[in-house]
Amino acid sequence: MFESNHTDHLSGWSITRYQRVLAATYFLLLAVWSAGIAFNGAPDESTHFFFLEYLKTFHSLPGATEPAQAFTGTISGYTWQRGEFWYHGLPFPHVIGALATSYGLGWMLPGELGYLAARCFNWILGAVFICALFRIAHRAGMPKKAAALAALVIALIPQVSFVFSYFNSDAFGLMSVALLISALLGFLKAPSKLAALCLGGAIGLMLLAKLYLLPALVFVVVMLVAHHLWGGKSLRRHLPTMVIVAAIVSVPMLLVTFMKYGEISGISGQIDFVALHKNNPAAGFGTCYIGCSGHLFNMENVLPWLSLTLTSYFSTTGWMSIFLPSTYYMGAALLFILLVTAAMIQTARVYSRDNRRIFLLNYLLPLVMILGLFPSIILLSLVASQNSLPQPQGRYLFVTIPFLTLLIAFATMSHARAKNSASSARDVRSSRFHLKWLVVVVAWMAWTNMVAWNENTLSSKNIQKSAIGKTVTDAVLASGAGSSSSTGALSAAQLTERLSITNGEFFIKTPFGQAAAAGTIDEVRKTSDGWLLRGWSVPPATDGSPEYVIAVEAGKVVGAIRVEIKRPDVASALSDKTVLRSGYEGIIPAVSPPDKCALKLYTVTSTFKIFTMPDVCEFISRLSH
């Protein structure tokens, strides 16, 4: 694993040049991804942004009970209400980095896009991440060109690009894992004081990451101990250097966090989150996965959980609500199975009785630990979901992503033992074969990444409020879209016919349309105030423009939402510029429990006609299960 069996040409690009090109390319890709994501258009961005906004405004750390009153951030313009939830008790290196980039780059952006300057720190982390992947592959024995392709294969996973494109703490953790593995390989290949400094720094960064990324540290400790005891390398003399550097990097922030919040794990914030949602039937608190109904695994609950976990490991953007077509997930699963199979076969072919110890240390031990990460993390996540809230999220498996680069290195390594002209020729043919396969996989991953970006950027929430979406909206408006049609209001004759007076009060008849309004319900979410509904509605063109979505239950109108959001995606899909203003988003009071839902939605037009809409109870029922 630490010695290349391939011929790496001295001509061509240097290692430094490969890393510069990879870093610049990936930085630009992440910027494009980020421009298509509205603020808080991805999981928990506002909860992380609160810390940043508070720190920038008050130059102090927020207490766990903040915000004590409504607070509007100067970077994002977002308002946090009194007592609104945010994650506290965690180390915050990503916040410090974002604070620096917001000061350094914020002046270049208009006020409404200031959040992009804070996100820029994660783009930088992404550039560091892809360089670390390249070094992992190259130090594991891959030629430079193949190592660059392997790094691209992993970095182009849609979920990886998505995580690095908005403000969150997972990006820092993912980058730290990649740096840690890269530093470990460099140290084991050539133990030195400089290598020990790098490994100690990487360990320090890992100690600032979230708990579910710490299995990477277990991998490092096991590898170091194994190589010290059985690898014939005296690593003990470098231990003080690693410990001191790791402490210098991590201890100051860990101390500040502990002194302020009384912990460094963020568990109290997670407990608050569970308490906030446990009484919500849609949250699924108490769902049983293991040791229930007389079975070890309740497959009725486990299979949907596992399906969503694995899909969100590869690509689930938005608020875990935007998916790719199923063929892409099938393709990713096939590639993963082929990768694991090839890695196992190639590892077995490297075995030699003469070098049994090297085989065990450099190949079998790391392969077994890498493959063991997947079932062990999934099992622990199932236990956590059962004891708190069901959270089938691929982010708990993110620690495995940099290790995929090692699997690629295993799958493409040479197994020739005798060094002669025949074996060298076989190595060259093998390298070319693997290189061609890597090119094909990179092309497929690039296409998949583009499809995921397109789906995410054109989603209703992002196309309305993102940097790209605002540009599109302005262009549509400039072209004359959204102008009122001649049937946009009641005519004098219609008003005369439908207006009446009863007991001194005016009443207007609102005819019920025979046809249903075109449209979809994009999101239904339970909140403390009721059901949050988001979507679009377009009635027949001759019956006026949509004005309100009303909710009716038990013969009463229980709420209404104004149709006022511009939807350029709808205008484009229907090839009709007049339907630009067709989106709605608001809260309808929850009158009855989800299992007895009788809610009906209707669209009211500018001509006071009413049209039916899709069945909202179908969505509510799905959430309750």
Structure description:
With 625 residues, this protein is α+β, with helices and mostly antiparallel strands. It folds into two domains: 15-464, no CATH class; 492-624, Immunoglobulins (Immunoglobulin-like). The protein is 54% helix and 12% strand. The chain has 21 helices and 15 strands. A hairpin with a 4-residue loop joins strand 14 and strand 15. Helix 3 (93-105) crosses helix 4 (115-139), helix 4 (115-139) packs parallel to helix 15 (401-411) and helix 13 crosses helix 15. Residues 481-487 have low confidence and may be disordered. The chain crosses the membrane at residues 21-42, 113-134, 146-165, 171-188, 195-226, 238-258, 328-348, 360-384, 396-414, 435-453.
Labels describing this entry:
625 residues, transmembrane helix, seven-stranded antiparallel sheet, RgtA/B/C-like, single chain, Immunoglobulin-like, transmembrane, alpha+beta, membrane, Glycosyltransferase RgtA/B/C/D-like domain-containing protein
